[in-house]
Structure to design on (89 residues):
């Protein structure tokens, strides 16, 4: 969780270190989250492959899923979903 690490820079370093060591990464929001959808961009930008934001039942969660859909549209055919390869790490 970004808020537990401290800064975006430290988060990026931690994700890179984990991925280099062969670990899968999950980008997660915090309790009491807002509608800011930055973690969707962070998950895609770091190639995390997984995002934990909860069920699509509240606006702050739906905002993240909507941002993921917008990113998918922006990337078009350049986008790649890791599928089972991501989950198996």
């Amino acid at each position: 969780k970004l808020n537990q690490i401290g800064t975006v820079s430290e988060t990026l370093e931690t994700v890179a270190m984990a991925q280099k060591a062969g670990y899968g990464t999950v980008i997660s929001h915090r309790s009491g989250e807002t509608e800011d959808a930055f973690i969707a961009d962070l998950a895609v930008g770091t190639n995390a492959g997984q995002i934990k934001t909860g069920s699509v039942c509240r606006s702050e969660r739906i905002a993240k899923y909507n941002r993921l859909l917008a990113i998918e549209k922006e990337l078009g055919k350049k986008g790649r979903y890791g599928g089972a390869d991501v989950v198996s790490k």
